[in-house]
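Entry 12.
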Amino acid sequence: MDSRFENYIRRGRFYVDGWLRSEAVQTIVALARRQRSLGVAGGVAEIGVHHGKLFILLYLLGLPSEKAVAIDLFEDQHLNIDNSGNGDLAKFRRNLERHADSARLVLHQGSSMDLSGAVLTRLADGPLRFISVDGGHTAEIAAHDLATAEAAIAEGGIIVVDDVFNEQWPSVGDGVRHYFDRRPNLVPFAVGANKTYFCRPSHRDIYHDAAAATASTATATEFLGQPVAFLQFLRPGLKDRVAKSPAWQRLRATPIGLPLRWAWNTGRTLRRGLTRNEDF
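Predicted 3D structure (tokens):
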């Protein structure tokens, strides 16, 4: 990974409008790295890129030879029948150029309902390694986009679907369930941070374990009749975040850091004493 990737992970993504939890970022990065270790190749794509928050991450995870396909209504917002998202092509292009580049970009503006797996594969110059589905949020669109993604993924490819369990968009879950009534060659393997992950049965156990390793706790559960890992993430407190920060690591043993450490530890002792006194 180059410096642009590290910069985007640490800072850049917070300047791009959109919805992407940090926990989902670490899971997606871990899965992409697992794919690399397995030799899985292919382009990446997102259906519903909005302003590029997740797409840029997928782009930076790609190799120079891998296409990155961005699919969105963009200026055709009259087709946005459920008012989910509001993609802006100019903002998307600015964000992509600011945090990555556009050398591998393949842009497809229009309704994903007019897209097929064959067309998506052609746009990417072959089967895709990683596809994010976050387009229209009706049951019909969600089922169609999942079908498009399944028809375009490589063996060892991963599909991540947004909002399957989001109470604001219950139709997405309906669409996923309707699609699985067809018994596709696809299984879920993990759920967490508002993302649900799917792959071919051949890679389920490998990706299940890779996703589970990113979580604080991975609970075994079922979805669509298949075993999945429910990924739970404990957010570190302020003390832990400061303690692990590069700035504090440089400062802690300096003439400034030493009295700060003394003050923190003294204050902690006093706070514990007050808490004990309050019990009486």
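Annotation: Residues 274-280 have pLDDT under 50 and may be disordered. The CA atoms of residues 133 and 161 lie 5 Å apart.
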